[in-house]
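pls design
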């Protein structure tokens, strides 16, 4: 799945309100650009995405059934 397909999926499933999907989209877009940017720019962008992912914390706590389809 490329970033365009993932973006459509996110849009069609109302995923704009799901930050973990937006992180996946950012990672996919970065992966697609990797050959066109410097290693420094790639690592900086990856660190930024990682920082945002870590800010999500345990966002799923209390909504396991809705997010994962079952209790954890």
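designed seq:
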């Amino acid at each position: 799945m490329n970033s365009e397909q993932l973006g459509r999926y996110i849009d069609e499933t109302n995923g704009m309100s799901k930050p973990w999907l937006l992180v996946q989209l950012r990672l996919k877009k970065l992966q697609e650009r990797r050959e066109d940017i410097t290693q420094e720019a790639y690592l900086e962008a990856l660190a930024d995405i990682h920082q945002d992912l870590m800010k999500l914390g345990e966002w799923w706590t209390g909504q396991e059934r809705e997010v994962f389809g079952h209790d954890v």
